[in-house]
């Protein structure tokens, strides 16, 4: 009986862990406000367990439950808040809703951030 119970627990735990996926991909942005927006918005999405966006290399690491959300949905969500990913470009409407300092497609803003040492792109 103990062996059966132990086997059931082990099988249950392995199926729980297999639902979690970790992905790293490109998300465009230029400043700390971008980082806050990306991370705080993503963590509220059902199925996303952990998120960390690196300003220097513009890579996001996402830990998510594959039973609740998939990778294309995550890319789509990030694009909906105004940030391009390597899979989906944000719509003009979403991009234009960003604060002026977050307009990563505007070369003058990117250059200004570099001069101020805001990022290392």
TrEMBL record:
GO terms for molecular function: metal ion binding. Residues 24-83 form the HMA domain. InterPro entries: HMA_dom (IPR006121), HMA_dom_sf (IPR036163). This is HMA domain-containing protein.
